[in-house]
Amino acid sequence: MTARHMAAGLLACGTAMALAWPAAAQDSFSLDPVTLGQSKREVRTDTAISETVVDEEEIEDRQATTIAELVDSVPGVSLINGTTPQGSGINIRGFGATSSYGSDQKVAIQVDGASVGSEELYRIGTQLFTDPALYKEVTVIRGTAGTFEYGSGIIGGLIRLDTKDASDFTGGEPGFKLRQTLQYGTNGDAWASSTILAWQPDENLEFLGNYTYRSQGVQKDGDGNGIGDEGFDLPSWMLKGKYTFGEAREHSVKLSYSDTSSDEKDVPYDTFGTTTDMFGNVDRKTRSKTAILEYAFDPAGNDLINLTATLSYAEQKIDQDYVPGSSSCEGGACGFPFPPGGFPTTNADHRYETTKLTVKNQALFATGQLGHDLRTGVEYVRKERLDANSAPGGTDKRWALFAVDDMSFGGLTLTPALRYETQDIGGDSYADYDNDALMGGLSARYAFGNGWAVFGSAAYTENLPIIDDLGTPAYMTRSEKARTYELGVSYDRGTVFAEGDDLALKATAYHTTVWDITSYTTDAMVPITDARMKGLELEAAYSLPSGHYVDFNANIARGENTTPGIRDDWEGTPADDLRVTLGKRWGETLDLSWEVAHAAEMNRSDKPSDSSTVHNLRATWRPQEGLFKGTEIRAGIENAFDLDYTPHLATRPAPGRTFKLTLARTF
């Protein structure tokens, strides 16, 4: 039996079981009032922040090939492509990646606290260059409120990835655990192998090693046409250790190193596929490395001290060489002299190195009847960029102080936040500049005690000048500025429609204004200076003691380029969309789900897109006893009806029908 037939059989069987909706109810159980343990994903009704957590179970359930495929189901998050590490980017609330750049600095990505990704690399996507097998949790914060502990200039949002620990497999007990995962996808003949070895010599010391190799050929869209010219091979590995010590085990030291790379030959320079063959092809080597050293001190009986000091180093390196004869512009065919050896961009080697030290303390205390959860910290960031043929090199050094205090009194929680940041930026061939900014915000939430709560926030941030703009002096003394307001309502209650059920709802409206923009121009190269985004995000989850569950989220957004004299639709505005998941669990043994994702038609003159409705089926089987205990089998059908469509912000079609099968076992 082929993998394709096996996946189809499992899904057909699973779908039939789900549609049967067995009448026999499972034993009832109590659910946490905030976290819906029986739904696919929790709705964070306990906070004013627009936050979504994709946990390890959902990461594995989605059988994702890239990090992008883990977060595209979060309301407000859209992808610029996303099925390959190259030529992919993340857009949150209208900001982030574009069809020209993989990043605009308005969406931040962090791995265990380390800041990763590049600045503005022309037609190269780089922020997603890592493998989902390395991670146990992905947190997405949408908007600015809730990000001041993590950085400045975060307008669209923040994605935080947390890597796996040995104790996640050993349960904190001394011994060895080995986990082997094999995955196959029919579209593009994609396969992956992930091996994890966890070892705890004793309860205070743990080590983890992971090696993942992922390979994917050229995928086909719903019409049977190839997507792009090349697939990819992506080896990734990680080593991680932790030592806990002290009489009360109050001290710990953690060290980790991860490495992901690819080596492509004779592939298009333009990874977004928007310029046909004008730039030609390149040989491209990409390598992403992250090293993190963390010390934590959490003394027992002292709520005023919970200290962490994190030193991180992230490097992203891209080496490129033009392939002679691959550009349609050679010989002056495009109406201008063709540079010998290719365009400067096609021979540009890029290297970003970001070193960051963050010292942060959490203090829990009370002043009268007012409770405090106060996080304060100091941060030093040094970013270096290699001088390239097409982009300036230099050094960006920053110091920052931040303070965030969750103050609670009865049902009211107020959270003021401040961040002050200074900058010294320059390069060998460029002048030095000094900048600083004070930013912050206030969020509030009031819980009425009957399941209902209202919340809101106001936040202001500044995106200080970047190394990429050193060649434009006017931009080096002007920061991009943004103000965001949010207002919402939530509901979280058990036994709403039936005994033992659980319902969570959250609706968030937002309005973001950005001015002094330095990172966008029109097609006619006219600078864009002002923009406005507004939208509504909806989230809901409902579960029954019988194991049935429904998850729902939707996003409605409107964006406008408000630059004087231009006024047009904002190019990063995502399509209105909604996503519904229907599922049934049989305890920890079996989980079947059907996901429907719909995107509305967009009538923008410069980037129209048709509506689309995509169906995804998933099944997870985990025997709890017998010979197969510890084994997990996952099967899925993505784009089940083989729809041929291109997502609104994407530059290439989405993959057609894909059967996926994953086998995993922990020994």
TrEMBL record:
Domain spans labelled TonB-dependent receptor plug: 45-157
Lineage: superkingdom: Bacteria
Its membrane topology: Multi-pass membrane protein
Keyword line: Cell outer membrane, Membrane, Receptor, Signal, Transmembrane, Transmembrane beta strand, Transport
SUPFAM superfamilies found in the cross-reference section: Porins
Main location, first listed in the record: membrane
Cell location: Cell outer membrane
Signal peptide: 1-25
Entry similarity comment: Belongs to the TonB-dependent receptor family.
Name this protein carries in UniProt: TonB-dependent receptor plug domain-containing protein
Protein source organism: Rhodovulum visakhapatnamense
Source organism phylogeny: Bacteria, Pseudomonadati, Pseudomonadota, Alphaproteobacteria, Rhodobacterales
